[in-house]
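Chapter review: from sequence to fold.
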Amino acid sequence: QVQVVESGGGLVQAGGSLRLSCGASGSIFNMNSMGWYRQGPGKQRELVASITRGGSTDYADSVKGRFTISIDDAKNTVSLQMNSLKPEATAVYYCYAQRNTISYWGQGTQVTVSS
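The token string follows.
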């Protein structure tokens, strides 16, 4: 069973930055893709950013140019750098790791952006 663990959430003022990290038990090298979803209050879960093992990335339109997803092989983690944060980014952020057709999920980390 693969365990996915997130870290780095917290409270930040609008315009500030946060960096989320996600690791999977074993090596993330075995994963086809990893990424982040978020679910805000009263909203559906939505994809924020994803990255394949080959380095291809995808972003939600609302975060393009402000968020960057990357793989850190040395730390065996995937990171999400979030800059110029807006209050609407307030949500629980969930990391996933996908291997073949199976997705593994973390417990989520709260991000709160105050106005």
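Two observations follow directly from the output. The mean pLDDT is 94. Residues 33 and 54 are 9 Å apart (CA to CA).
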